[in-house]
Every structure is written in structure tokens, then in C-alpha cells.
Specification:
heterodimer, A: mainly alpha, MetI-like fold, B: mainly alpha, MetI-like_sf (chain A)
């Protein structure tokens, strides 16, 4: 039963050769297993982006969506010379920053609460995050219409408590867009921070408290810096998705919101006006703007994260 | 001591307020689906099942359910196959391919769906399969595969690899050793990954909107069109079904693994 294929019974040099062959076939097999997904990503993600980039560099066309084969910067000049870019910065980037700031603060607190709770409470809190996460954003935005419209639930409550004398129009309007967008991204942000907190040792916080730190201070100076990797992921996700928000401004926004939101403007150019070179150029410019903003945001967070740590 | 009690009360009030904010909108949707009147108000004045009766009679909603099911099943099959094989390959050898693959599958999740939707639309229209089932399925696969992949990497990382070596030493080929030594130990993980892929496809909206025609519209797309035309509790009925499906999926996934692990996979 001393299996001849087992390396242990072979002379040392042959055994080493056998092992290296086995290693090589192992890595070849691994590559073979990963190849389908690699090919899929190249065909369905990388290739579409290269084509997007290529079309953004073509000329417009009267009767086609763009003029194939041409080279031109007309799409970009349309983005830079009209109010498209101005709206992108004063509306979409601003909405992104606002929604992200609110989301990340709430998410950090909630993730901390989940981390500190146990048993049934913990399950209930986690459930309250996972269920909205797995619900379509159409429902998540639609739900705010009966709640926030002028004759909606919130206005009824405020009126009956005599806090306001006439209904406030949260929806359609910017307040509704921000609330809806925060609701859409909050579950992702909470879980990103929670999964980092879950690896953390509570003993560090206790040590800080034993040394006399108050509760809020121990959270701010011990928990937040430790959770920073999660907070950064939460920031990036919230920001990217809020800048590109489609459903919230489309459903909860007024005419102003709809005319300025990146996603709705780019949709109109693509599907209604059939100006593919402008739509794709705008998408490319927006991606670059987002990339720059994300780098700046992450650097700021890292800076302040470090600040807390050494305070 | 007094201060500590105040802090505790504030802390609890804080997270209960957020808990309410997380669940109230979904509760509103479910409750309004039982309204008697045709306008959307919360809480409704009278309750009835009238909108459920109309829903069953309307064929365009049933067509949307069929479309969603078809797209969801297609996405689940492709995403699970791609995700499980790639995660397995990455786990047996963490070479250069793996180092390229991990960030590559993650990036699409960090790009706003609207931009993915545009690039896919342009790509598929040029490829001649514009608004069709395959284009929606492939777009959803791009979104669902990372989840299966990361779930499976987490599952495989806890797997005892000596079992696989043992199977090989006993003479089993690569496929037999996978089926008999690996599969029984990771099937829960694969099941949860597939379930999540299905739910993600079922609920995805922006890419589906850009890639569907009237005959291939999924439920979220039809709901969106409906809301834009007129507000009536019918959308609440459909939404209630979608929420219940996700609820059931969470319960099943929690039984197969546990809620804490599931939550960490979703981040």
C-alpha cells in the first residue's frame, strides 16, 4: 500500500521535481478556474468602457446616434461650454457630499450600536439593515412619497401638533431627494463599518475608559480611528452612488432637481436626444470628477483619522 | 452615575430612531397595499384586499414577474458558476491572476449603476442585442458575481484543504475530488451565494431600465413606469411581494448560515 505516486517514497531530487511539477499544474489549474470570470470581466466591463471612451471622442451626427469612425472633441466641448459641467459640480457633487456626510455619521453610530448590542437586539438591528439593502431602490424612493408629500404623513403630524401652520413641500423637492438618497445608501455604509468594527477588540475601549476617557471621547478617539477603513469604504460607496443618483432625484425631486441631476441629464442625451458623443463624454468627465473627489475625501479622512489616533 | 444613565438613554433613543427610519418606509409600503381607496395615503382610512384582486387580473404585472424570474434565474446560474469556480481557483493558488481578479470584480460595484447602464447600453446596441434578455442577464451578472465570489472566498478560506489533498492521494481526479471532498462542505455557502445573486437581480433597477424593452421589462422597471404615470396603491401591492421575497430569502439564508455572517458578506 505504499502508493508509488506519493512523493515521500521517492529519492529526494525526484521528489523535489515531482513537487514543482505538481505546483505548476496547480497554478495552471487555478488559472483555468479563474479564466472564465477574467474573460467575462474583460468582455462585459473593460470592453464596454473602452467603447464608451471611444464614442466620447467621435463627432455628433444628424441622423445617427454618433458618427462612427470620426475623431472629435465636440462631445467634451458641449460638456464644458454649456451649463452641463456647472450643474454637475453645483448639483451632483454637492448632493453627493451632503448625502455622504449625513449617511456616514448615522452609519458610524448605528454600526457601533450593532457592534455593542447582543442577542435579539443585535439581530433586530442587523435585520433592519439587511432588509432595505435587499429591496429595490424603486420601492425605497416610492415609500417616501406618502410620507413626505404636502398632504403626507409627516405634514399631517406637524400640522396636528401645531408646529407648522401650512404644509411644507418636502416632496417634490431637495429635502426629499436627500432623505431618499440617504435611505438608499445607508444600509451599505452601516455594513461596511460594522464588518470592520466586528474584528476590533472591545478591551481597547475599556482601557481608554479606565484611563479616564469619557464615553463620547473614547468612541471618538479609539473606536473611530480603528473603524477608519470601514468608514472610508462607506464614504466611497455613498459618494459614488449619490453623485450618480437616478431614482431619488427622478421621483422625489422637483423640476430643478430633475433638470440638473447628472443621471437624468445624461439619460436624456442618450435616450431622447440621441447624442451619444455628448452622453458618453459627460459620463467620462463625471467619472474623473468623482475619482478626484474620492481621492481628496479619502486623504482628508485619513488625515483626521491619524489626528484622532495621536491626539 | 446619573450621567451614565442619561448617556445610556440617549444612546438607546438614537439607535431606536434609526431602526424606525430603516423599517418605517417599508412598513408604509406594505400597509398602503391594503388600502381601500385608490389614492396613496398613510395610514389608509379603510382596509381591503381590493388592489390584490385587481393585481391578479392584470396581465402586464404577471408578464413582468415572468421576466424578472427569467432574468433572475439566468443571472443566478451564470454568476454562481463564474463566482464559485473563480473563488476556488483563487483559493488553490493565489498567483498573479488572483491579484488582478480581486480588484477587477470589485470595481463595478464602486461605479454608479447609471454609468454602468450607459456603457452597457451603448455596448449592447452596437453588438446588436440591444434590449433583450441576454443583455439584462449579463449586466446583472456583472453586479451579482462579485458577491458570490467574495462569499465563496470567505467559505473556501475556512475549508480544510487537506481533505482535497487526501482525496487526490486516494486517486480521485480533480472533478471527483471536488464533488466528494469539497462540495459537501461548502454547499451552504454556494446556496447562500446563489440566493443573494437571485435577489440582487430581482431588485436591480437602473441597469434593467437602460437595457429593457416593453416586452422584457422586469418588475422594478414596470413599477417605476407606473409610479411616474399615476400614484396608486397597486405599486404597493407589487412592492409588498418583492419585500416578502427578500424577507423569505433572508430567513432562509439565516437558517443556512447566520445573520451576522450574512451581513458581513453584504458589505
Amino acid at each position: 500500500m505504499s502508493g508509488t505516486h506519493s512523493s515521500s517514497s521517492l529519492p529526494a531530487p525526484i521528489a523535489r521535481l515531482w513537487e514543482s511539477l505538481r505546483e505548476r499544474s496547480r497554478s495552471k489549474r487555478a488559472l483555468l478556474l479563474m479564466a472564465p470570470l477574467l474573460v467575462f470581466e474583460l468582455l462585459l466591463f473593460v470592453a464596454p468602457f473602452l467603447i464608451l471612451l471611444r464614442i466620447s471622442l467621435t463627432n455628433g451626427s444628424q441622423d445617427l446616434r454618433y458618427a462612427p469612425g470620426t475623431w472629435s472633441l465636440s462631445g467634451y466641448s458641449e460638456v464644458f461650454s454649456t451649463d452641463i459641467l456647472l450643474n454637475a459640480i453645483t448639483y451632483s457633487i454637492k448632493l453627493g457630499l451632503l448625502a455622504t456626510a449625513i449617511t456616514v455619521v448615522i452609519a458610524t453610530f448605528y454600526a457601533y450600536a450593532i457592534w455593542r448590542s447582543e442577542g435579539l437586539v443585535k439581530s433586530a438591528l442587523l435585520f433592519s439593515v439587511v432588509l432595505p439593502l435587499l429591496t429595490t431602490l424603486v420601492i425605497k424612493t416610492y415609500a417616501f412619497m406618502p410620507l413626505l408629500s404636502p398632504n403626507g404623513t409627516l405634514n399631517d403630524v406637524l400640522l396636528s401638533l401645531n408646529l407648522i401652520s401650512e404644509p411644507i413641500q418636502f416632496v417634490p423637492g431637495t429635502v426629499g431627494v436627500v432623505v431618499g438618497q440617504v435611505y438608499i445608501v445607508l444600509p451599505y455604509a452601516v455594513l461596511a463599518i460594522y464588518s470592520v468594527l466586528a474584528t476590533m477588540d472591545w478591551g481597547i475601549v475599556e482601557a481608554a475608559r479606565d484611563l479616564g476617557a469619557s464615553r463620547p471621547r473614547s468612541v471618538l478617539e479609539v473606536v473611530v480611528p480603528q473603524a477608519m477603513p470601514g468608514i472610508i469604504v462607506a464614504t466611497v460607496i455613498s459618494f459614488a452612488w449619490s453623485v450618480g443618483a437616478y431614482a431619488a432625484p427622478g421621483l422625489l425631486g422637483d423640476g430643478q432637481n430633475k433638470a440638473r441631476a447628472f443621471a437624468l441629464v445624461v439619460e436624456k442625451r442618450l435616450l431622447t436626444l440621441l447624442q451619444w458623443e455628448v452622453a458618453t463624454a459627460y459620463a467620462v468627465v463625471m467619472l474623473l470628477l468623482m475619482l478626484v473627489s474620492i481621492v481628496l475625501l479619502t486623504a482628508t479622512l485619513n488625515y483626521f483619522g491619524g489626528e484622532f489616533e495621536y491626539a | 452615575m446619573h450621567r451614565e444613565r442619561l448617556e445610556n438613554a440617549l444612546f438607546r433613543a438614537g439607535y431606536l430612531a434609526i431602526l424606525t427610519f430603516m423599517l418605517l418606509p417599508l412598513a408604509v409600503v406594505v400597509v398602503t397595499s391594503f388600502a381601500e381607496s385608490g389614492n396613496l395615503a398613510f395610514p389608509p382610512e379603510h382596509y381591503s384586499l381590493v388592489h390584490y384582486r385587481t393585481f391578479v387580473e392584470e396581465t402586464h404585472w404577471l408578464l413582468a414577474f415572468d421576466n424578472s424570474l427569467l432574468v433572475g434565474v439566468g443571472t443566478t446560474i451564470i454568476a454562481t458558476t463564474l463566482g464559485v469556480t473563480a473563488a476556488f481557483g483563487h483559493e488553490i493558488d493565489d498567483g498573479r491572476a488572483g491579484q488582478v481578479l480581486a480588484p477587477l470584480v470589485l470595481i463595478p460595484l464602486l461605479i454608479p449603476p447609471i454609468i454602468l447602464g450607459i456603457s452597457m447600453r451603448v455596448y449592447f446596441v452596437r453588438a446588436g442585442i440591444g434590449a433583450s434578455y441576454p443583455s439584462i442577464i449579463l449586466a446583472h451578472t456583472l453586479w451579482a458575481t462579485p458577491l458570490v465570489y467574495f462569499v465563496m472566498r470567505s467559505v473556501f478560506s475556512r475549508f480544510d484543504w487537506q481533505l482535497l489533498d487526501a482525496a487526490k492521494d486516494l486517486g480521485a481526479g480533480p472533478i471527483r475530488s471536488f464533488v466528494y471532498a469539497v462540495l459537501p462542505n461548502v454547499k451552504h455557502g454556494i446556496f447562500v451565494g446563489a440566493l443573494l445573486a437571485f435577489i440582487i437581480s430581482l431588485q436591480e433597477f437602473v441597469m434593467a431600465l437602460f437595457l429593457s424593452s416593453r416586452s422584457t421589462e422586469t418588475i422594478p422597471v414596470v413599477a417605476w413606469t407606473q409610479i411616474r404615470q399615476s400614484l396608486d396603491p397597486m405599486v404597493s401591492v407589487v412592492s409588498t411581494f418583492l419585500i416578502i421575497i427578500s424577507l423569505i430569502a433572508i430567513v432562509i439564508a439565516t437558517i443556512a448560515t447566520n445573520l451576522d455572517w450574512l451581513s458581513k458578506q453584504l458589505s
